[in-house]
Amino acid sequence: MFGLFRSKPLLDEGSTEWLFNTYAWALRNLGSEVFRENVILVTPSDHHFPDQSSSTAEEKVSTAFVRVRAYAGMQDWPCELTALSSDMNPGRPLAISSATPKDPQGAVSIKEVRPSIPIAFDPGMIRKPIVLIAAFAQQLGYHLGRAVEEESPGGEELRGPTSDLLAVFMGFGLFMANSALTVSRGGCSGCCTSAQKLGYLTEDEFVYALAIFCVLKNIPNTDVELHLKKTLRPFFRKAVKEINKTGGGDIQRLKTLGTATH
Known about the structure:
Layout: H1 13-30, H2 32-38, H3 57-72, E1 79-83, E2 117-121, H4 129-146, H5 159-179, E3 181-186, E4 192-197, H6 203-216, H7 221-225, H8 233-245, H9 248-256
Parallel strand pairs: 1-2
Antiparallel strand pairs: 3-4
Helix pairs in contact: 1-2, 1-5, 1-6, 1-9, 3-4, 4-5, 5-6, 6-8
């Protein structure tokens, strides 16, 4: 009887389990200490992207990508930006060798990889910097995931969602959540709408992954909601509450992962 008064889980059990397991996989292979000490929540603000005065579109894109790579800890990875044209098919990001060195803390790094990793972008994204940065983070997440020897939860079949999760893991959860679903209205009366989806995870899954990140990093809700879409804030608050309450065992497992050696 009392089960009738229990709140329904925000996500289905399989999705929540996969998110926590993939976080655990990332912490094991990319360095739990690096995550705790170095990874930050990157915000769509002048604080993290102060280069709005760049004079040309090319400079804006290049400067934004340099900052994304730095926040992701991948500034030493050889990458090449490629602007897509209407007759180009970006296809799937090229994989890189998994035989990559790791530093003492377990962070995957690429010393010498040829040719450079291709990072594609739609020139139209220049007018939507949040979407542009989310696309950069997602592609870097793909290549980072391919560089890990241990198979990620779900394997190759879930390579796309894993890339999305790694983008959140690297600190770009606000960009991924805010860009997951973009609705545009047009027409003379604004009655025509179109929706554009970015990434493989659903909007709710992105927000839940962001909530896990913030609980792990002890980031207050207010610091997040300042930059999160208004429509996503209620779900984010519920996710944080659920993670701290019903998901206590799962989040505790992530918090203690790797601490035994320090």
